Amino acid sequence: MKNKFFTLTGILVFSSIWIVFPQITSKKTTDDPVPGSCTIFSASFGDKVFFGNNEDYYKPKTYLWTDPATTENYGCVYLGFKNYAHQGGINEKGLCFDANALPESKLNPHFELEPPPVYEPPYEDYIIWLPVLILRKAATVEEAIEIAGKYQRKNWYPDSGAISYQLNFADAKGDAVVISVDENGELAFTRKKKDENYLISTNYNKANPENALEYPCQRYNKAEEMLEAISSEKELSVDYFKSILDSVHEEGVFNNTLYSNIFDLKNGIIYLYHWHQFDEVAVLKVNEELAKGSINIRIKDLFSQETARNASRAYIVSIFLLCLSIVASTGAMVAVIHYIKKRKRKTKVANNL
């Protein structure tokens, strides 16, 4: 009976190490791997401007929806999670954004500035989130920067005076900027350099690298290596951007690339991939999607049943492995406690002899 117990304990310990250890060692400098590890980049060369993003997280239900144009707002197409949790988007003018998760960073409120606008009724109690406001009102990165600095910082939704993300914007002219918070709590604007064709952001603050989930970042370095290899307009293509996204995608128990998107900012085209499966693409034109009015659709429904099933299977396996790791860890802990108690009993008996 003892041999069976210790054999089972050994299996549980080994399983726990086998499942959890690769997840930890793959993110040696990550404080919390759960919030996601999105890789975002844009590049321009000649008459081409592309923007790419891997949405890395653990929630499988992802959506695409529209915010149609009005007399005051540009029309926008968004990607994200249910209940209109915007993660990224593009407007009819070719301005787009996505966000990287970061550890919390202090954000100065600047109450001397005018209050940010609120959503239309019946949501007038909610301030418009900054990137949503920018996509509604701005056509260029220059205009985005102006809007970002115009209002009190409530439109960042600071929690206890801090935020935990940065924003990456790009426009159809080829301009790009990462808006983050510096070490003093002020907005910082990291622009794409004039002598470079690309701008990248992952999970460290572009203005303050010490504010990081992962630094240095292997995904950043890989994307940079591949973007630096582009030397002509011909080499900048959707297929090449797809290969970069594939090279830096995530697969694991705690984190997966749920979807990937490439925006052709000059032509207003969205190339969408589901659950790091890059052999099938959904191609959407921004103007055509906006012409449909208000839509809200699961991203998986844009793909074949086979691609959707493959994603579902992969998710089920990841959940199974996560549960197994929890069981294994719990079993290992119980075994250690049992061993310690047994040693104490033996020591007590020996001392009484």
TrEMBL record:
Coiled coil: none annotated. It comes from the Bacteria. The keyword Transmembrane helix applies. SUPFAM superfamilies: N-terminal nucleophile aminohydrolases (Ntn hydrolases) (SSF56235). Residues 133-273 form the Peptidase C45 hydrolase domain. The chain crosses the membrane at residues 314-340. InterPro entries: Ntn_hydrolases_N, Peptidase_C45_hydrolase. Keywords: Membrane, Transmembrane, Transmembrane helix. The keyword Ribosomal protein does not apply. This is Peptidase C45 hydrolase domain-containing protein. It comes from Flavivirga algicola. The lineage of its organism: Bacteria, Pseudomonadati, Bacteroidota, Flavobacteriia, Flavobacteriales.
